[in-house]
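seq as requested:
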Amino acid sequence: MLGKTERRLAGVILLTAVVPLVVAIWMSNALFRQASSVWLNPDVDKQLDHGVRLFRDYVKAEKARTRYQVEAMAGKPELVRAIGEKKDLTEVLGRLLGETADVERVSVQRNDGAILGKAERPAGTVDAGRRRVDVTRHVGGDREETLAVTFAIDRSYEQDLQHAGEVRAVYGQLVAGKEALFTGYLRAFAVLLIGTAVVTIALGFVLARGITKRIARIVVAMRKLTSGDWSVRVPVTGSDEMTELASTFNRMSAELQASRARIAYLQRIEVWQQMAQRLAHEIKNPLTPIQLAVQQCHRKYDGQNPRYQELLNASVEIVEEEVGTLRRLVSNFSRFARLPSVERRDDDLVQFLDDMQARPWTADDELNNESVPSLQIEWSVAGGTMPAAIDRQLLRLALGNLIRNAADAITKGDPRQVGKGVVRVSARVERGEAVIAVEDNGPGVADGVRERVFEPYVTTKAHGTGLGLAITMKIVVEHNGTLSVDTSPDLGGARFTITLPLR
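struct tokens:
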């Protein structure tokens, strides 16, 4: 069923096409009748006949002229004498050739076809488009030798004669079929008018259907979006305002989906932070009593049984070591639970990265130089400026976590491998966003872990807590950015990419 928009657009296209065509038919008919009354009259017919006769008489005169010239050449005494004496024939023929401009070749031949002498113009001196006409006459009128002359005659006169005859014939047909021509003309325009109406109506419906279908797709997508389907997109086709509308809708949908993902992630992180705070509280409280109780047992024992004393010493050492591990875990939980929210201020990412490169790392929030003294960090930051709203302290913590993870992946707990490792930090601008990448030449991140690597407590390290990347993701998300991981095409290890919006 056709909608109102389709019918209206089809009607507008029909009026736009048919009205000018009707006016053109009326004006053309009037002009054609007026012009035919001027062109198709007896005087024109007479003049055309007269012109044809003049061209025909001219062609006959040209043919008579060539015959006369050949007869004049064949009767020249010097030609007859040269043939009789059999000398200077070529020279005489050359003079005859030079006396006439439109002669291309002259020759003398016997009845048996043998050529006694000839003269011709060099190749290229005569227009190749001329028509060649051969005229022959007996030399002296009674000799057996024959003079053959080749004329290069201009074709335009014959062509004009032929064309004039064709025009005269066409004109005669026009005069004879004047009324039939008017009738056919009107029928042709009537067919054109009907065909135009049909085509424009069909074209109007097709164009309207194309627009309304695209509008309908956007309406359906909007309904899906409002019902909670944030992944909906519409096809982007064409290059008009509807295309821009579809592109804008897709950008809006993508931004809403990204915002929803950010909100959902931050909500999950908030739950994890609350859980971490409770775990830290629940684990921290019994640690000190446990450690004090074991130490008291160790002090109270008088050491009468050496084997028991040895067992007690080992047990105390294990308990103290595990309590220390739990304290560090509690400390990480507490730091994760107390992680502040991002407070962004206008800044320059290029200057920020230059400051990170120039300032020394600290053990609190960046890579500990004492644990990896020979780590090679390459910095590649694009020139110019990258204005963005950032929280310097927390963004520094996020980049420090990524560099620390790269160092841990390279060393695998063996600091001796650090000298062989490379960590590269680069920054550039792509599609109006700042892209910061941290790459390494370590073993990379397995495909099965990539989807969960940013969740809290997910780690591939033997003694890791899985909070570093979660903290980094939270910081990046609160900057309205994205964080992803893949394989470095240059170094072969992992590549973590931070994308931040520019101001």
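The first helix runs from residue 4 to 39.
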